[in-house]
């Protein structure tokens, strides 16, 4: 082979190598791009998966999930239990989250959790031994309110109107349902025809947290009644000992709640009422007159005291047919633990201080001294 042929052959080989190099580089480029895309997809997917796993499974869920954390459980076993019970999506992510937040000292016990709880709420629960959730909104019902007044609070704090609340609260089917659900709380006394509202006094004063955006009106009312039921259960033995019904207790306590002032002595006022009941003396408490009239007045007139109404304790003997407001725990306690006195009269001065008397003459002297 002459030199020219060898040169030509060399040139052809160089062209071939150059061509192969281009193919190789193209293949490498494609493979690299594919790898980068796969890494990107995995990274993005991983990011969204982790982000999703950090969120509650179902923020709107109200279903309660029982969770038992055994003694000696570490974060690994706790995370696994939470995933198995469906409270969280991924045990490993929860475990890493708690370590990142430097959280520890979790308590064993039986919990009631839900898929709406955040990681922070779950951690707070496990640290305190209590179920902790941030409510979407709360409704505060103060002591001493009537159902009509509570309806106004519901109207301002929920999607329901005051009128809708009152319609539900007097619905015979709803009342029967409540009686069936809370047999230890309700008796046939609430069906007395002279009672204005069967459920008056049975919605406990408290701040109620709600964990869903739009709970039903029935759920809102039932929650308040359930709280009254919870409170009353602890008094059952004492009520049986005193031969007193729950209805009488809430009725009596509502009178104390309405007579109360900022500095009042409810136990002593309770003793006045009990002393009067013992000698068949009318209770003669002004709040019952106002309830009978169905309107608020700054001053009760003598003509008001004569209104013919089963709630007017100036014209009836004993307790009114039912509560005239919702009583708080302090008033309920006072109704069951009155001071031992011989007082039959009391009045509150302009500063809210109470003055008690054993006789009517002493009471008149207190009127002259503190009210004139």
UniProtKB/TrEMBL annotation:
Q: Which domain of life is it from?
A: Bacteria
Site-annotated residues for Important for catalytic activity? 259
Classification via CDD domains:
MltG_like (cd08010)
Locate the transmembrane regions by residue number.
23-50
Question: Where would you find this protein in the cell?
Answer: Cell membrane
Q: Which InterPro entries match?
A: MLTG-like
User: Which membrane topology describes this protein?
Assistant: Single-pass membrane protein
GO MF annotations for this entry?
lytic endotransglycosylase activity
Tell me its EC number(s), please. Answer: 4.2.2.29
The enzyme's first-digit EC class, named in words, is lyase
GO BP: cell wall organization; peptidoglycan biosynthetic process
Q: Which reaction does it catalyse?
A: a peptidoglycan chain = a peptidoglycan chain with N-acetyl-1,6-anhydromuramyl-[peptide] at the reducing end + a peptidoglycan chain with N-acetylglucosamine at the non-reducing end
Q: Does the keyword Lyase apply?
A: yes
Q: List GO terms (cellular component aspect).
A: plasma membrane
**Alphabetical UniProt keywords:** Cell membrane, Cell wall biogenesis/degradation, Lyase, Membrane, Transmembrane, Transmembrane helix
Pfam families per record? YceG
Keyword Transmembrane helix tagged: yes
Entry-linked HAMAP family? MltG
- Quote the NCBIfam families the UniProt record gives: endolytic transglycosylase MltG
Q: Which family does it belong to?
A: Belongs to the transglycosylase MltG family.
The task this protein performs is described as: Functions as a peptidoglycan terminase that cleaves nascent peptidoglycan strands endolytically to terminate their elongation.
The name under which this protein is listed is Endolytic murein transglycosylase
Source organism (scientific name): Lysinibacillus antri
Q: What gene codes for this chain?
A: mltG
